[in-house]
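Re: weekly structure request thread

Next one in the queue (160 aa):
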Amino acid sequence: MVAKKTPGTATAADKASGVPKARIAAAEPGELAVRPGEDPWTPEEVAEARSGLLSEALRLRAEITHSEESLVGLMRDSGDGAGDDQADTGTKNITREHEMALAANAREMLEQTERALDRLDTGTYGLCENCGNPIGKARMQAFPRATLCVECKQKQERRY
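Done, posted below.
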């Protein structure tokens, strides 16, 4: 029999890892964190969230592959600049930098998506990584990769 960890209960390993007690709240699917007054997650809603994240991960992997293939072609073409004027060289550089930025953005989004899937698997999906409070079911449904509640996100944005 596996002992079920209750929200706010820290094991010795949790304490040693430095994870704040408020963030330690593994839940079964359907027992994911919600704000007071919200309906609990249904198994169908959890499955829908997982399905959306999985399809987003597939889309992002395809986008990254496409960008990397384009970059290989752009890098190959950049070495063959004989006869190019400054405008052609500049255009190639801008195109290459744009493609690199798109690939980096897709990698970051993929990392966030995979992290959300991990949080679903561990039962911490919907908990703010900063304060440990529920993020809110509506926010998670609108932005499934959210890791901060609205209050913590606003504080973070004010700092930048």
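DSSP finds five helices and no strands in the chain. Residues 38-124 form one domain.
Next request, please.
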